[in-house]
From TrEMBL:
Pfam families: T2SSE. Residues 215-411 form the Bacterial type II secretion system protein E domain. CDD domains: VirB11-like_ATPase. InterPro entries: P-loop_NTPase (IPR027417), T2SS/T4SS_dom (IPR001482), T4SS_GSP_E_ATPase (IPR050921). Transmembrane segments: none annotated. Belongs to the GSP E family. Signal peptide: none annotated. GO terms for molecular function: ATP hydrolysis activity. This is CpaF family protein. It comes from Nocardioides agariphilus.
Length: 490
């Protein structure tokens, strides 16, 4: 009998550990419910040696890759995880035997389980980040170096988080591994490709940069408000009931809307709430660089065709494209054969604005987002994005296209203030402007339908005559007019 066998007979069979006895098939374990007291679990514990975890993960990854490559029938994700459990079990047994033989002592059952779970999480999930992503009270994870972690909770509170690696090189190594293992949309992350944008299991979005920053920088956005409506946002005091009725009517009347604001201001959440006002039987197409809206997973609409752009790889061809590249513009062109009722283009940061313009030109009532400091600045930002397509796009052309296609811009504000124990963020709808072709000098005209009052809340200001017709779609015109002259909060 080997030392490992004698140890296992004394401390028990590793296969009885929860990691191996419960077949999760990749499902996420139970997590705290919203509203429960916030408890941020440490990503490391006394029973976990992360240098051992890193070594076992590398060895397990190599064995798993070899096994998958040799299998004639490609293993699906569930089968790979089952195989991975077996590989991790063997490696843990070997590591325990080595420690016993070297006189370093036996592993406790707690150390067995903690190490096994850590290796499995590092191999198939997010390693030391996984407990943070699993906690429903945490919305955003901001990392500037392995030991400088900031957590934004769902109530807007900001608190410090635990280290997510033992060193910056270890953090970079894990990000490289994470990028390469994606089954759906694998991406390169290296000194030659120092930026990473990745969709994670469960709908989170990861953005990372290294080699071009002093320390590796990572932001994970966890979308907690998925099944959200405008009424939910009113209850959270993000907007007034009158503003909600206006936006609801605008969606139903097929007005094209751009939601603008700072990073993390809640733009995607608001778009999700606006899309909830679209009739369940309308066929929707979504176009995103990385899936964030997840309308195809929410079950609100019977038909949702979701397109995701794909970066190419390798050297660029004569046309300047990398092999395998798939753009939002190509997706939008294809979508016109899919009998869509709505085309929803996600975030606009650059040339993808032309996909947004094409969608809005179809007159179906499209919705998009962009980053801007205020609603009027959003127009200038979109003009700049359009001009990035090349010298053939003049400022006049870009301006005329936007003025003719965008109906409304909804501006979100985000305020961060110090509170005992950290900081807190408040998000609000601050402005809603109507955009139309206008003066020759600028090429467009803007009207503040709702303007921020002294407290930052969007209140009625000036209603263009053509928007009175939104009363037929549920706009509470009486409430708007009753507070319009006084500028009081409805």
């Amino acid at each position: 009998m080997t030392e490992a066998s004698r140890y296992l007979s004394e401390y028990g069979d590793l296969s009885r550990l929860p990691l191996f006895s419960q077949h999760t098939n990749g499902s996420t374990p139970a997590v705290p419910k919203l509203g429960a007291p916030v408890t941020v679990p440490p990503t490391t514990g006394p029973d976990v040696d992360w240098s051992i975890v890193a070594d076992l993960r590398a060895r397990a990854s190599e064995q798993l890759s070899q096994a998958v490559a040799s299998d004639r029938n490609r293993l699906d994700k569930a089968a790979q995880q089952e195989l991975g459990r077996s590989i991790v079990l063997d490696l843990i047994e070997s590591a325990m035997a080595d420690d016993v033989d070297a006189g370093r002592g036996a592993w406790s059952p707690g150390r067995q389980q903690a190490t096994a779970q850590a290796v499995f999480d590092s191999l198939f999930r997010l390693g030391r980040l996984q407990p943070l992503v699993d906690n429903d009270d945490i919305e955003n994870i901001v990392i500037v170096g392995h030991d400088n972690v900031l957590l934004e909770l769902v109530d807007g509170t900001l608190i410090d988080g635990p280290p997510v690696a033992d060193s910056d090189p270890e953090l970079i190594d894990f990000l490289v591994f994470l990028a390469s293992r994606s089954e759906v949309n694998a991406r390169s992350f290296s000194e030659a490709q120092p930026r990473l944008h990745l969709r994670l299991d469960g709908g989170s979005r990861l953005a990372a940069a290294a080699w071009v920053t002093p320390r590796p920088s990572v932001v994970i956005r966890r979308h907690r408000l998925m099944q959200v409506t405008l009424d939910d946002l009113v209850a959270r005091e993000m907007m007034t009931p009158t503003a909600a009725s206006f936006l609801r009517a605008a969606v139903r009347a097929r007005r094209s809307i751009v939601v603008a604001g700072a990073q993390g201001a809640g733009k995607t959440t608001l778009v999700r709430a606006l899309c909830a006002e679209i009739d369940a039987m309308e066929a929707i197409g979504t176009f995103e660089t990385e899936y964030e809206l997840h309308l195809h997973e929410l079950g609100r609409h019977k038909v949702v065709h979701a397109w995701e752009a794909r970066p190419g790889s390798g050297e660029r061809g004569p046309d300047g494209r990398q092999a395998g590249e798939f753009t939002l513009d190509e997706a939008l062109v294809d979508s016109f054969r899919f009998n869509l009722s709505r085309q929803i283009v996600g975030e606009v940061r650059g040339k993808e604005i032309w996909a947004m313009i094409k969608a809005m030109e179809s007159g179906t009532g499209s919705i998009s987002t962009t980053h801007a400091a205020d609603a009027v600045a959003a127009v200038r930002k979109l003009v700049t994005c359009a001009m990035e397509a090349g010298p053939h796009v003049t400022q006049g052309l870009a301006t005329s296209k936007l003025a003719a296609t965008v109906d409304l811009i909804v501006q979100l504000s985000m305020e961060t203030r110090a509170v005992p124990g950290g900081a807190q963020r408040t998000r609000r709808v601050a402005e809603i402007i109507a955009l139309a072709p206008g003066e020759r000098e600028v090429g467009y005209a803007t009207t503040h339908v709702f303007r921020a009052d002294a407290s930052g809340v969007a209140v009625p200001d000036v209603l263009p005559d053509e928007y009175r017709a939104l009363a037929h779609y549920g706009f509470d015109l009486a409430a708007y007019l009753s507070t319009q002259a006084y500028g009081v909060q409805p």
